[in-house]
Automatic annotation (TrEMBL):
Protein name from the UniProt record: Serine protease, S1-C subfamily, contains C-terminal PDZ domain
Transmembrane spans: 175-201
PDZ domain boundaries: 432-515
Organism of this sequence: Geodermatophilus telluris
Single biological process term from Gene Ontology: proteolysis
CDD domains, alphabetized: cpPDZ_Deg_HtrA-like
Region Disordered: start-end pairs: 1-160
Residue spans of biased composition, Pro residues class: 78-92
Keywords assigned by UniProt, alphabetized: Hydrolase, Membrane, Protease, Transmembrane, Transmembrane helix
GO terms for MF: serine-type endopeptidase activity
């Protein structure tokens, strides 16, 4: 007894002569006809008769026709096309990324492996809806349906509608004519009512005349309290002793300030750079203008370019003399008042504080022979051009400095002013009044400021032969770091330290030479 072949379909219905599809239809309807091989033949179609093409134009025949000597399509002796270029091999990185693994050829398997074969009773691609599937019938006619139609949302009835966010809105186009007319009438009524009320209010307020003869404005009898030592009190005491210096040379002119230091003799202290341009110039005129507006001609008594101090004299006895104090009694933070003629405005008073002491400042003015280094009193009282030669006064009304310079980026006061200490100005003024000149101590060296990162000093560039420095053994490339007990951190500080002594004084210089420190004794000369 032989077992049935499992590959052959088993008869499940004795009355059936053929196979059946999974949906129960007869498979014989889709079987290949008896004696037919290959694929199905397409149904016969009748084609419409095609009219023969019209004869070619003789000109086109001559241009595009085959030559008489050519029987085939093209002659065989035409040039052969050039060989195709051989492409270079792909890079090794591309080969490693895309070539098949070792032992395999062709395309690689997908990551999940090849999918299994779909099997049905009649074939791998069979589906139950084969009869009604137009994509399986290549001869099925094409058909178009109507356009896509979307149902519109039902329009809400107005005038109050609800938007997508659930908010109520008033739709004006749904308002009735009666309601709209009522709204317009309400607006017009409100406007008319407001205008009428305003008109009545303005009519009730009567206009007053523009002129009122005999009108007296109120005033107070309380006097302003000015305590002693206030800026106003200081200005009232010192301003009469400060004068304005006017210098005229031909058509040019300049303005500065001055302080009366001897009222009986008519001596006035000012800056050298204020009057130096008129010294020895024929036709030059110097005039001192006092606080009461009167003026007198002034003559130069003496000038000292090394300290920027000058003294002029007027023939006017009985002047108010300023009280001279001492800069040694001043500390940083003390209030000060600057009085002078900045920008040609005589009697100007500004106030501030002492912001620094013993500030080395080099003075050199254009058109002047001033070449000085002073140990200045620094102040934040506004000082401008024209303040030069004026008074810097402390809270007691005593003059502690002669204003001489400003630190500015744009030519005006930026809150930094410098004054010659009154102790120095008094000493120089006394020498100028007595002899017409002043003397200064000299070391006889030229220096510049240097630093090694840890300590500053004045580097000696050259030594004058026979000077005090040469006699003391000071050499070029020495760095001066101290004069007696006064530290020296720059070339300006060395000049100030030497100038604080008299000619003939013996000073001790501490030098740095060859990496080691040494001291020498120097007897100062007269400059």
């Amino acid at each position: 007894m032989t077992s049935p072949d499992p590959r052959e379909p088993e008869d499940t219905d004795a009355g059936s002569t053929g196979d059946r599809t999974p949906d129960g239809t007869d498979a014989a309807a889709f079987a290949r006809p008896t004696g037919a091989t290959g694929s199905f033949d397409p149904p016969e179609r009748t084609r419409a008769a095609v009219a023969p093409p019209p004869p070619a134009d003789p000109a086109q025949q001559a241009a595009f026709g085959r030559p008489a000597t050519v029987a085939g399509s093209f002659p065989g002796e035409r040039p052969a096309p050039p060989p195709r270029p051989v492409l270079p091999p792909p890079p090794e990185a591309v080969l490693r990324a895309f070539r098949a693994p070792a032992g395999q050829a062709g395309l690689q398997e997908p990551p999940g492996g090849r999918p299994g074969r779909r099997r049905t009773s009649a074939g791998p691609w069979w589906k139950p809806d084969a009869r009604s599937d137009p994509w399986r019938d290549p001869h099925a006619p094409a058909g178009l349906t109507g356009p896509a139609v979307f149902a519109e949302e039902s329009e809400q009835e107005g005038p109050v509608v609800v938007d997508r966010r659930g908010r109520r809105r008033l739709r004006l186009r749904d308002l009735s004519v009666r309601v709209a007319a009522l709204v317009v009438l309400a607006v017009l009524l409100a406007g008319a009512l407001g205008g009428g009320v305003g008109y009545l209010l303005t009519r009730e307020a009567s206009e007053t005349p523009l002129l009122a003869p005999g009108t007296t404005l109120s005033e107070t009898d309380d006097a302003v309290t000015r305590e002693p030592g206030s800026v106003s009190d200081i200005a009232a005491d010192v301003a009469p002793a400060v004068v304005s210096i006017e210098v005229r040379i031909g058509e040019a002119g300049a303005t500065g300030s001055g302080v009366v230091v001897d009222g009986e003799g008519g001596y006035i202290v000012t800056n050298n750079h204020v009057v130096s341009g008129a010294d020895g110039v024929e036709g030059a005129e110097i005039r001192a203008v006092f606080s009461d507006g009167t003026g007198s001609e002034a003559r130069i008594v003496g000038r000292d370019p090394a300290s920027d101090v000058a003294v002029v004299k007027v023939e006017r006895p009985g002047l108010v003399t300023a009280s001279l104090g001492s800069a040694d009694d001043v500390v940083v933070g003390d209030p000060v008042v600057a009085i002078g003629s900045p920008l040609g405005l005589a009697g100007t008073v500004t106030s501030g504080i002492v912001s620094a002491l013993d500030r080395p400042v080099r003075l050199a003015g254009e058109g002047s022979d001033t070449n000085a280094v002073i140990s200045a009193v620094q102040t934040d009282a506004p000082i401008n051009p024209g303040n030069s030669g004026g008074a810097l006064v402390d809270a007691t009304g005593a003059v502690i400095g002669i204003n001489t310079a400003i630190a500015s980026l744009g030519g005006g006061s930026v809150g930094l002013g410098f004054a010659i200490p009154i102790d120095t100005a008094r000493d120089i003024a006394e020498q100028l009044i007595a002899t017409g000149s002043a003397v200064h101590a000299s070391l006889g060296v030229s220096t510049r400021s240097v630093t090694d990162g840890a300590r500053n000093g004045a580097l000696v560039l050259n030594v004058e032969p026979g000077s005090a420095a040469a006699e003391a053994g000071v050499q070029e490339q020495d760095v001066v770091i101290r004069v007696d007990d006064q530290p020296v951190g720059s070339s300006e500080e060395l000049v100030v330290a030497v100038d604080s002594h008299r000619p003939g004084d013996v000073v001790t210089l501490e030098l740095v030479r060859g990496g080691s420190s040494t001291t020498v004794q120097a007897t100062l000369d007269q400059a």
